[in-house]
User: Fold these one by one.
Assistant:
Number 1:
Amino acid sequence: MHQSLIDHAAAAAADQAPPTATRRQILSVGATLSAGALLVGCSPNLMGKVLSVGAPHDFGAFGPFVKIAPDGVVTVISKHIEFGQGNHAGLAAIVAEELDADWATTRVEQAIANAGAYANGMMGIQGTGGSSAISNSWTQLRTAGASARAMLVQAAATKWSAPVGEITVKDGVVSHAKSGRSAGFGDLLAEAAKVAPPQAPVLKDPKTFTLVGTDRVRRKDGLAKSTGTARFTQDVHLPDMLTAMVAHPPKFGATVASFDATAAKKVPGVVEVYQIPTGVAVVAQNTYAARKGRDALVVKWDESKAETRGSEQIVAEYADLASGKTKPAGKIEWQGFDARGDAASAAGGTAVVETTYDFPYLSHAPMEPLNCVAIVNGNKAKLIHGAQMPTMDQIVTAKIVGTLPGAVEVETLFAGGSFGRRANFQSDYVAECVQIAKKVGKGRPVKLIWTREDDIRAGYWRPIVHHAVRVTVDKDGYPATWRHRVVTQSIMKGSPIGGGKLDETAVEGTKGSPYLKATPVVDAQVLTPDIGVPVLWWRSVGATHTAFVMEHTVDQLAHAAGKDPVDYRRELYRRAGSNRHLAVLNLAADKAGWGSPAPAGWTRGVAVHESFGSVVAQVAEVKLENGEPKVGRVVTVIDCGTAISPDQIAAQMEGGTCLGLSAALYGKIELKGGEPVQSNFDTYRVLRHGEAPTVETYILPSTNPPSGVGEPGTPVIGPAVANALLAMGQPPVTSLPMVKG
């Protein structure tokens, strides 16, 4: 993004800035956009104000989150994308509860891209992730609903000359019992628009909720998705639109040395071939022509700076680093993330458990491969796609076309999954589409399509991770010293929304673990070497590996001490003061019948883990079939604070469990000489319908604010299965996936 444009954005933002924001602060935020970064530590409100310059901001009388039509229909504006997790229903229910709207006629509409109005309160930019859609919107949307209700009540009181305290609202109808008057929301719009929104509207006592927390809160998108009327990127068909596919290098870090497009241009329907920063793009009249044209390309790749190591070599290097056999290269250093007592003593004594764990690269592999529609006309740009991080997409697009981020229009559609893949700092597939659309120019729409093979092989995977754990115990068999080493790539390196030197995503779930809190001596460190493979958060991020390591290690300690794994955990939670962990564990054990015989041929395993503010316990019943684990019944208990939609929470536990089980049993991307081996579901095996377990979900009652639901169910099933295998006499699982070959 040109500095003159940055200065313009900062100046425009300064004109709109609140009294507490200085022009110097805004200029400092704006200047960071030249590097495609955001200023860490900057006020989210200030950041959003700069990034939204040029964006539409003319909202209605009820603000950016609520619209009421003349027929009384309430539309809740969602700042979060819906890509399968069902958050639109929960977000709408929060507003409808405080507004006392008619739930049957409440609708949901996707917000425009405007970081000033719709920033995620936990990120400072507009985006969905970290299981934060409900939690970061809870107070915001309650306030929006309560404010709109107060305006309608005041309008009715004024119109009817009645005291505000005598006005009631129910199911979209405002009433005054003493006079017998009533009116629908639509009947009061003109009067309500004249009422100033209250700064601090009175919120309901949760004890009086009639919608939130009930089974009435069901998905609003179910019918459209069932009938095929829901709009995804593949459904976008615009006049004169072209379709593009990109030939990517076979190795990460390779670039185009030269290419011959002669044969590609002879394919009927191919319009043009362009070189872009990430490869060679074929633009055609339709998908078939684009695919055939790409197949006909002849590209020579410059691999002088490419990553050429294989997965086995990377794993071996990580193991040598963790053991101290080799020293970190360059400026990469070990970083402590948990320490207690005399850390040096954690290397001494007789270890009861001394082991390593290895986790492979994982592809997100959502059902809908990556795609995007871009329209570029000069320095004007519009994006149409499943935008998980609209603000990042705006920043990247603005740099390419030369405009203000807020001036980039983003129409966010439904997306068929993501698991984190659509949210990367480079907006990689979006940038490709914009680069191509810019070359096409003249406002002609371009739809970029990635095939399944593109999606799986092009990276941004969950990184390879290596853990080395050494634990000694006290006279009662509980941890006395715990030495822990983690080696993995940093996901947050260069992040515009990160902070501090330590990459928390690499150690979350180990750092702060109740097991470490219950251990007198702890020495835990992490190393994040650079590898030439693009990596990214994968559903539940650090917990994808830390939950497995902590829970499987604790089960091994329990077995070594001759103690029941549930009772062993209870004592550790007592020592750590982890009451939430204890509560979910107790309920899961009770519902699963822990302590009573499992069904014939089955063995039970347990695991408990906290992620994204929620605590999940699972008991899995497992048996071996043809040497492979078969999972039957899974009892799940979650403490996620206030439960907005119990039905959707159960659905997320079911889906998260299946994804976590798929990864634990089968998930693996391998590099051979720097090239990915897997390319589609024939080689990247995923859980099939017939392999899915029966998942029972129990929600622990809570009056705390809502916490994460989309991800916390994913990391627990793997260690629960491994612990069941341990209970049946199998050796500890030290590398994933469990099913080899």
Number 2:
Amino acid sequence: MCGILGVRRDRVDRATALQALRRLAWRGADDLRLIAVGDWWLGVARLVISDPQAPQPITDRATGVAIAFNGAVTDATAQRRELAARGEVLQGGNDAELVLRRYLRDGPESLDRQTGGHAFAIVDPRVDAVLLAVDPLGEKPLYVAEEHGRLQAFASSPSALEELGFATALSPRQRAELLRSGAVRAVESRTPSVRCAALAPALYRAEPASGGRAAPFAASTGAAVVPRGCQLTDALQRAVARCAEAEVPVGLCLSGGIDSACLAACLDALGRHDVVAYQFRAHGTPDDERQRARAVAQRFGLKLVEVDGGAAVLDVLPGLIHAHGLPLGDPSVLAVHALARRAALDGIRVLLSGEGADDLLLGYPRHQAARWLPRRGLTFLPRPRFGMRAMQRLLRAWTAREPFDALMEATSPGFRAEVLRGLPPEGESLLPAGGDREETAPSALARARFLERHWYLYADLLPKLDVATLAAGVEGRCPFLDPEVVHCAAVTEPDPREMVGKRALRDAFRDRLPPGHMDQPKRGFGVPLAAWLAESPWALPMLGDDITAGRDWIDADGLRRWLAGFERGTRRHLEDARGLYLLLALELYERRLAEPPRTERSA
């Protein structure tokens, strides 16, 4: 994993480009290199996973074409065998070279067949073109800056664009999206003539013929080749084998839930008992998931390292937000980072994660509710204003125009009405409409399938894992997001109602896991947020100071009343602790330029 960066040479000098690259060192501090390719500075802050002697960016000696690559090619071994059979000799063992060779051999239309989370940039000085790519699910981020429609720069984090002079901000709608739904991945420019944006999963090409704009283009070869009649069990087994193949020590996030337990079963079938498992538990919480993690680790002969954390894990949040350049709305990023830091201390450089299983196989409790929700809500009925318990959320969903959108909200309408101002009307969905296909979806469950993949996974879970692991010096890999697994999940049950609760996964692995493990309910990677905020010596004081109260989107009196209720321990205030956390993440984002904190991995 790496941080990649490119900027036009006529815009900044080498020293400025190098300083921007250093802003990405938290993504990979093993090697920072900046080269000139045609009209571009191209740089990589590299976390070395494969071949330390094959640095990036990589330049083809014959053509001068160069690539900066972030991520992993998880079928790299197969690709190397294919090249060897053709008599081609690689310069080194870096995955980036495999992508560069494919581009030179088969053209840009072949580049949509990579497996593994990735984002990359290819600069081709022969035709004055830049090719940008983000993997099909958006596991790895890439942000661009265009001025007057012409591509000027790209980087793995908005913070690097800011170092290049492209000031970024959240629009009022993006801010509202964060405070209502708990996540945001987009970014906008503060300069009218400049457009800053996160690239959606696709291939993009910028060249003189398009005015230098990064425009998506359609590839002709289709997605990664998937075996016909694939079975989910076999597909996941092969995906785990690909993701666990590395030249460095590999670990597993073993939460105690179903998804990571299935990954442990696959590792056992591969004979990979060298993989170390890690489990996080917050101080003062029940240890039932830890007990389950212990049972799974014992069953499959894995060493289990137990990681505990309390309110002190909040102390890394300012550094993470400053490094990334966007608010981190999911508080579980703190738990994942604590786990990844411990793994890094043990020498682990790759962590397997179960992210994506619930989104693709409909494993969240809200999917059970979506089976019975109407496609359009009964908006004439009254809605509960406060509370985040299951029944209150369900009643609000029944009375919302978009029931499933309301079910995904991270804060209550009462919190937003009392503490915030300037938000769009409550009946307006802040989530992506999804185009005509989703506007005509026959059920709330059909819309759920779209939103889980194209909003929650893309804007919340994947950025969380990316930032949390890389800031600890570890690469996160998600076998459930392997193209073969995604394909099998989509064709296993044409009727989404038959998939709810991850039925196919439970049926496939039930006999391989400890007794009763498959019958547990979904819990998620939750943290005792209210307790952490109350125990932190700086979080609530920051929310209560005059700087926060003076923001345009804050009702100062309402916020002070809410903080007072929270400190008294009133139930409805404690239940909406996520709202205070989101305000804190947003405030840290707003203060990132005026009060830059430390961004080292030890922060």
